[in-house]
Design goal:
Helices cover about 45% and strands about 15% of the residues. The strands form two sheets. A seven-stranded mixed sheet has the order 6-2-1-7-8-10-9. The structure holds S-adenosylmethionine (SAM).
């Protein structure tokens, strides 16, 4: 069929069995749950990709995506269409206020080694760069200036390559203090802003599926941010992931989770931060 004709075809309805197969595939591989209300989201995004490839039928495409190494390449493309990668700088300001207060307290005690911060589900980089700016600002005029490193991890290779590029449209800065954007970014000829090498060199981004945290090398982290990722997961999985993250914290470390993303979770090593606007915990020293 010619591509123009193909594009005019109405969206084929997905059978119950096909929906279940795709739901299961996404959840098994990423943890992300697509409930019945998200059926049309799944259908629209799969169809768009199938049109690009000229594949007819959700079943045939499923076979293609699950077919060995070739399927893995296609999966990596499809993943970006099926996961939400929305993010912004300093998302949920109260979480960053808690972070900065915590960093000031750590600084007051004196640093024995550089601070290690981790953004879990870092998307296109706004969160890890925000963590880096907070740390840089707190340490800026101290003897420990620049003594920190931020790791950003995500399952999406596409999101990670954007994060590594560190180039953002000026619209992304509407809510950032102008002083900060001037201090840490350089405006390019096309109007976009690029993170300055001095800050970029403190941020490192790597692929990590949070379902495989047991394979992750991170340990002894001073700060872990995990916001707007767990909401897509089942409750038991959210708890399991947080239990893993708690173990990756250094004694005295801070874990920040998106507000409302996990209810009633506790961990024997952690103490909740007393602030009703954030969901954060510190690991006992
Ligand atoms: C909505 S964004 C949140 C970004 C950022 N943390 C924030 O709060 O703005 C969720 C990110 O989680 C990533 N993600 C989804 N499933 C994942 C998994 N199993 N492992 C790691 N990252 C995952 C997505 O690729 C996406 O970039």
């Amino acid at each position: 069929m010619q591509s123009g004709v193909w594009a005019l075809q109405p969206l084929a309805d997905m059978s119950v069995a096909e929906f279940r197969d795709w739901q299961e595939l996404l959840e098994t591989r990423t943890g992300v749950v697509l409930n019945e209300q998200r059926r049309s989201f799944l259908q629209t995004n799969l169809s768009a990709r199938m049109r690009e490839l000229g594949v007819e039928g959700y079943g045939a495409y499923y076979q293609q995506v699950t077919d060995g190494p070739r399927g893995a390449v296609e999966w990596s493309t499809l993943l970006d269409r099926l996961t939400v990668q929305e993010t912004r700088f300093f998302r949920h300001r109260p979480s960053f206020d808690v972070l900065e207060a915590y960093l000031r307290e750590r600084l007051a005690q004196g640093l024995k080694q550089p601070l290690a911060l981790w953004s879990v589900g870092c998307a296109s980089g706004e969160e890890p760069y925000s963590l880096a700016i907070s740390a840089a600002e707190v340490l800026r005029t101290s003897e420990f200036e620049g003594q920190f490193g931020v790791t950003g991890t995500d399952i999406s290779l596409n999101a990670l390559s954007k994060a590594r590029e560190g180039l953002f449209s000026s619209r992304r800065f509407e809510h950032m203090d102008a002083e900060l954007s001037k201090r840490y970014f350089q405006t390019q000829e096309d109007g976009r802003l690029k993170v300055l090498p001095s800050l970029a060199s403190r941020v490192c981004c790597a692929r990590l599926n949070v379902l495989e945290l047991n394979k992750a090398p991170m340990s002894g982290m001073d700060v872990i941010f995990c916001q707007n990722l767990l909401i897509y997961f089942r409750r038991w999985r959210r708890r399991e992931i947080l239990n893993h993250l708690a173990e990756r914290l250094a004694p005295g470390g801070l874990l920040v989770v998106g507000v409302g993303e996990v209810a009633g979770w506790q961990h024997p090593l952690l103490t909740p931060v007393a602030n009703e606007h954030v969901l954060a915990f510190t690991r006992q020293g």
